[in-house]
Amino acid sequence: MKPTNSPKTYRVKSFGCQMNVYDGERMAEMLGERGIVPAPEGEDADLVVLNTCHIREKAAEKVYSDIGRLTKGKTQDKAPMIAVAGCVAQAEGEEIMARAPAVSMVVGPQAYHRLPEMLDKAVQGERATDTDMPAIAKFAALPERKRTNPASFLTVQEGCDKFCTYCVVPYTRGAEISRPYGDLVTEARKLVDAGAKEITLLGQNVSAWSGENDKGQAVGLAGLIRDLAKVDGLARIRYTTSHPADMDADLIAAHGEIDKLMPFLHLPVQAGSDRVLKAMNRSHTAESYLRLLERFRAARPDLALSGDFIVGFPGETDAEFEETLKLVDAVGYAQAFSFKYSPRPGTPAASMEGQVAKEVMDERLQRLQAALNRDQWAFNRATEGRTCEVLVERKGKHPGQWLGKTPWLQSAWFEGDVGIGDLVQVELVEAGPNSLAGQLRERVAA
Ligand code: SAH
Ligand code: SF4
Ligand code: F3S
């Protein structure tokens, strides 16, 4: 590649999970430290970071179509400098370098703190790949956080040791690690100083977080949440994503005891058939999952539940799929994500017998989503008439309209004299399938 001018503007495009969004924000902050500014809306950026996701085939393919779109018909001096980050970078770094000469930098999710050095090389015309996995080094090397959204993310745990047979995450994000307690309390305080009212603690397996508190005691996620709840100015705490195997009694109890811990639990189950769950290497059964939810609901009766589902896992029969629908009926989810099984390179399930035909998966997904949508709307209707606290996150579509989240993570929109970051009391007056219309009752001091 030819040497080029240092980029002046950047755009970070994040795909995939919330952790990728968090990583994207941190990369943007690093570029900001370098004096590179976000490209104005609608204008081309000098540097584009594609922060990619490898979880399903469609997500991974997007990288190449995005690169094509960014460089189409452009010579090197007209095209933006491109960095590929995220989980596709980790899984297919060398392939990207070989297949896409327009890419100057490939940087994995555990190495992105080195992006500025790579940028120096790229300006000299040197292409660079960094997919090392140095445990935890990244966080210490990132700049301080100065600005943030009212609802912010904080990565507390990364990686996964569960090895579900369909999933790439243990390969792209590496082994489970927990960030140290002290670092997290400090970062949470900084986020609050920077404007956060709500913090969602993130981890691929967040309930596996463990650490040592300031008194030298071993603590789990519940212990961390209890201490973060003492941070002045922080009004709401959430966490995601959990695995049913790592939910301990203390975390369940915390839902009944800590007001700041929001009544919402995202707990993926994936399927309702025990045979399928076993083949997926999920260490729970449908029954043990339901029993676990009962314990959570006993601690916090108004808990809203969310989950993830995969239809068409290799070998899944019609009758086994019906068991997923049965489980959905039994739970009554407030919201959920559902996906067609996507064979991922290097995972055990990709070479299992009995791969399910696309049409069968389509039909199953449609039926599952119909059931989930029905339950989501029912959940929203059940909250009609309630007045609850809403955190204002952004302006709505129409002038004077605002959009925020209820404690149960529903989107609520309303009109009134408020601002982004305000916590307000809103009466939920009309439930739609995906959001609720509300009426402002009063502001609450944050
Ligand atoms: N660590 C989290 C999130 C993993 S990825 C967890 O265990 O819940 C988010 C979701 O993507 C998973 O819960 C699963 O439902 C889905 N998923 C993962 N791999 C998949 C695959 N190969 N095909 C389809 N969906 C997949
Ligand atoms: Fe993937 Fe399973 Fe780990 Fe979740 S728990 S990240 S689905 S391997
Ligand atoms: Fe995707 Fe990586 Fe997240 S594969 S879902 S971006 S951990």
From TrEMBL:
Boundaries of every TRAM domain copy: 381-442
Cofactor details (free text): Binds 2 [4Fe-4S] clusters. One cluster is coordinated with 3 cysteines and an exchangeable S-adenosyl-L-methionine.
Cofactor(s) the protein requires to work: [4Fe-4S] cluster
The cross-references to Pfam families, in alphabetical order and at most eight, read:
Radical_SAM, TRAM, UPF0004
Q: Which CDD domains match?
A: Radical_SAM
Q: Name one GO molecular function term.
A: 4 iron, 4 sulfur cluster binding
Positions annotated to bind [4Fe-4S] cluster 1? 17, 53, 87
Q: Where does [4Fe-4S] cluster 2 bind?
A: 160, 164, 167
Annotated Radical SAM core domain ranges read 146-380
Q: In this protein, which residues make up the domain named MTTase N-terminal?
A: 8-124
Q: Major location, coarse class?
A: cytoplasm
- Reactions mediated catalytically: N(6)-dimethylallyladenosine(37) in tRNA + (sulfur carrier)-SH + AH2 + 2 S-adenosyl-L-methionine = 2-methylsulfanyl-N(6)-dimethylallyladenosine(37) in tRNA + (sulfur carrier)-H + 5'-deoxyadenosine + L-methionine + A + S-adenosyl-L-homocysteine + 2 H(+)
Keyword Cell membrane on entry: no
Domain of life where this protein originates: Bacteria
Subunit annotation: Monomer.
Family stated for the protein in its record: Belongs to the methylthiotransferase family. MiaB subfamily.
Q: Mind telling me what this protein is named? A: tRNA-2-methylthio-N(6)-dimethylallyladenosine synthase
Organism, scientific name: Qipengyuania flava
